[in-house]
Amino acid sequence: MKAIKKLVLFILLILIIIVIVILLNGYKVYSEAIEKTSIEDKVSSIRNDTNFTSINNVSMYYKNAVISVEDKRFYDHFGIDIFSLGRAIMNNFRAKELVEGGSTISQQVAKNLYFITEDSFSRKIPELFVTLDLEKKYSKDEIFELYMNTIYFGEGYYGIYEASQGYYKKDPAELNLYEASMLAGVPNAPSVYAPTVNMDLATKRQKKVLQTMLKNGYISQEEYDKTINYK
Which ranges of the chain does DSSP label H, i.e. alpha helix? Predict the structure, then answer.
């Protein structure tokens, strides 16, 4: 029994050391990134863009659609949604592959600001530190603004203004439920869900967006039915 206890303690010690090393390496990457360009400078650059869209100038349908499908507890968590993360880990474990990310809107902003070219698990740690910084420095509405102005919608469209104009020839504030729910689904996989790429897959993704909106109380059954049958 003593030998087993010692072995367990040894394994736990090794795991703790590994976690500490990962966190330290992640913090180093984070520190180097913000030292090169501060979060404030990144945000200022986005806000100074000609096509920057304020949260007050976007359709509420779009805002509600994004929050519903991407991060329904956005206004309640501290940047990390423990429940979504736990669910994603379990689903990925069952599927034996990466089928669900679990990233919050805040985490996606952190990725878009600093780690958009990184596609490895190792970026998750520095991304976490940036996320916590964003939550300290900016309000939830400001973080959402950063999200919708930096996310990629396919066809070379970055940000909700370019996407709204490019796909529907409208300002973001004019998007109806059909258009807003379609655009909210695209960033999950722009090369697949862009309506100009495959309308059938785009519509399936849109349906999922609408289902989450209905489930979370953002739209009525009547609005859901009407939009599903919209032509």
Answer: 2-36, 39-47, 60-70, 82-95, 105-114, 124-137, 140-150, 159-168, 177-185, 190-193, 199-215, 221-228
Task: Answer whether residue 35 is part of any domain.
Answer: yes
pTM of the model: 0.86
Tokens 């990629």 correspond to 152
pLDDT tens digits along 36-52: 999 999 999 999 999 99
Q: Which domain holds residue 85?
A: 17-70+78-224
Query: Do the domain assignments include residue 229?
Result: no
**Six token digits for residue 170:** 């409208």
Q: What is the pLDDT of residues 55-88, one digit of tens each?
A: 999 999 999 999 999 999 999 998 887 766 655 5
End-to-end CA distance of the chain: 70
Q: What's the CA gap between 39 and 33, in Å, rounded?
A: 9
Residue 50 lies in a domain: yes
CATH number, domain containing residue 97 = 1.10.3810.10
Rounded Cα distance, 82 and 63, in Å: 22
> How is residue 61 written in tokens?
């349908």
Q: Is residue 34 part of a domain?
A: yes
